Amino acid sequence: MSIHETVIPLYKPLGKTPLETINALRNSDPVFSHSAMSYAGRLDPMADGLLLALSGDALSKQEALSNLDKSYDAVVLFGISTDSDDLLGMPARDGHSLPAESRMREALQSFAGVCTLPVPVYASVRVQGKPLYWWARNKKLDDITIPSRTTRINAIDAVAVGSTSFQSVLARVREAVPLVSGDFRQTEIIQAWQALAEPREALATVSFSVSCTSGTYIRSLARELGNALGSRALLYSLTRTSIGQYSLENARRAIH
Fold this sequence. Notes:
Blueprint: E1 7-12, H1 18-28, E2 37-40, E3 48-55, H2 62-66, E4 70-78, E5 80-82, E6 91-93, H3 101-109, E7 113-118, E8 126-127, E9 130-131, H4 132-137, E10 148-164, H5 166-176, H6 186-195, E11 203-212, H7 218-228, E12 233-243, E13 246-247
């Protein structure tokens, strides 16, 4: 590959940060081993999918590339919520009845168009000079106003409504959470999930595809979908499938 090919569609694995994924590319391809590099479009550790690695002239286009529309495949789990709105958070559950399939599909469609959603409290958005997750970790959320983002959901379509057992969810937590490096409360989170009383009933899920403008937190969408249906909910899985004209199908995989 020539260094002049400065936008590299790259697959970010589950559990890795964008920076770790860029460093894996450096280590696996000598073309980039000594190049200045960055990326366009953040992607949470509990998500996988398309990341745009940037080098050379593309570094000056980082903001424009980050602002491209994006598409995702997502699964929302009902009946359990966390403080991070995904599996990498402290869980809580309730005994509310789970929503019917028709209501899930209707609720999803209600988010189409211009949409304003609160930012997840475990996010890097800065408030009064500190990342929002700092306020959450230090139990100071009452001292600030949690910001919201107004974006556009271009299209949102339910693919399938199903269910899964709590044991399957717990197995996924035990597998996915340790993949994340750094201090994300991993030990406490796994212990909290294990301490949950095992639900006798299956937990409802909905899989959907969504196309949206930049800045849309799908974790927030999952939480608000649950609120609209009177249920706790979290983002169970997320794969980014496109950024503008770039597709996950054409992404290369760095060796981790």
